[in-house]
Design brief:
The structure is a homotrimer of 113-residue chains.
Chain A: E1 2-6, E2 13-18, E3 21-27, H1 35-53, E4 60-67, H2 73-83, E5 91-96, E6 105-112
Parallel strand pairs in A: 4-5
Antiparallel strand pairs in A: 1-2, 2-3, 3-6, 4-6
Chain lengths: 113, 113, 113
């Protein structure tokens, strides 16, 4: 069985749950903010997504953090370190890419249920 | 048990199936086409890969769509929306990156079997 | 149950094992080297990570190879082909992105246990 929580955008889910695995994606709610603030916001959205799936950040397995400016990775990382469960951190990769519009930070994650 | 379907390129599989999960990747067959047309083609290749694995787009869990020009994300998205099972969309991220040669669109996906 | 092997960097794991799946990430030890040499080094780190998890490259399911210069993808690919288990290759995507500092190659992988 596959459980899906729709995104506000058509044609995609913001959470998909299958066989004990949770696939989810998060971006900041306010795209006018700095990379740091957008990461804080995206992590809050990620928390909400994980909660809706029935899990939490302590069960994260893997995270890919996409940012648009690698010179600002330290800002992302400060937001991350203030947020992550230090006793249960996921595998993580931070990658510099182009994102849509004013998005500066986007997080894709896999968690256990 | 792990089942692998070889790619035409050495040293990689275009489909890997393990314990109810299918990992696959697709690019356009004709690299001379536009980003939109390449996305349509890559999605058709994805369909074929999923069918060979014994599953289909209605069981997609997660998709990463890599494109080389984020200004053309709307073209990718139109191709996506015409293709995706609207009742069963995966978690999706669209990321602007550099791809090989004339590839303009590449899709990596995880599906349930 | 989730088993985590800490990274040398805070707030993340270099290996996470859950329900028969292994999530791991690797970069080169010596960041002063060429993209080719960094890929060779990252693949050796990947081997070590997989061994610590209790698995090996013959059980790789999916790999994402991030490199900073797609013009040098042939160098990455030569290192890959010399390393990969040709009878058991994973699904692979090679993506051109920005990485941190002097990193030229970073590999994220999912393996079966």
């Amino acid at each position: 069985m596959i459980r899906r929580i729709p995104s506000s955008a058509a044609g995609r889910s913001r959470v998909v749950v299958h066989d004990g695995l949770v696939f989810t994606v998060a971006t900041a709610r306010d795209k006018s903010q700095s990379l740091r603030a957008q990461t804080v916001s995206a992590l809050a959205v990620l928390d909400a997504n994980l909660a809706e799936a029935g899990t939490s950040k302590s069960k994260l397995l893997s995270a890919t953090v996409y940012i648009t400016d690698m010179a600002r990775k330290p800002e992302m990382n400060e937001a991350w370190l203030a947020w992550v469960d230090q006793a249960n951190p996921p595998q993580r990769a931070c990658i510099g890419v182009a994102l849509e519009g004013d998005d500066l930070s986007e997080i894709v994650a896999v968690a256990a249920l």
